[in-house]
Amino acid sequence: MILEVADIRIKPGQQTEFEIAVQTALTTVFKKAKGFRNHNFHHCIESPERYVLQLTWDTLEDHTVEFRGSPLFTEWRSMVGNFFAQPPHVEHFELVSTSETKLGVA
Amino acid sequence: MILEVADIRIKPGQQTEFEIAVQTALTTVFKKAKGFRNHNFHHCIESPERYVLQLTWDTLEDHTVEFRGSPLFTEWRSMVGNFFAQPPHVEHFELVSTSETKLGVA
Fold this sequence. Notes:
Alpha-Beta Plaits, alpha+beta, 4 strands, about 30% helix, about 35% strand, homodimer
């Protein structure tokens, strides 16, 4: 399992519309993607145009090859691309350690 | 509950020692910190000197005021500061949404 971390900066004042677009994409586009497991989506306190979207995938290639090479990627970008102030910074991570059993609302 | 995201770049070739230092700090320093809940710690695949350390706190001030103003912060930095290639980029986040019930090793 690998973690995709997308560091996103949107244009000012579009937070509500962007969050709705991401939510819609998560429940339509990503749920169809091979190897997609789950997500968490966070909004930055200090930089209100910044979001971090974290997606877990079974393998690196499920994201970088399968998803990015599929029509789902085009669909995702058509839903959210206009909100981006710059291309998102995306890299992939392996877990070193966690103390979490649940990540969610307290 | 808020999420602290520390984006860390270390000096080359010190991954093993850095991971041990962080693990030690998590189980000694952070476990004593007021409002500290849990962590996850990830290593970047594309940029091997990059780590993302995510810590959840009860409140923003538990991290920014209480922890950073305490001797625990000095202790933490004394354990890991020498590994940093540059000051970590740290910001705080609120959860927009999650589909996770468990975050961990598959």
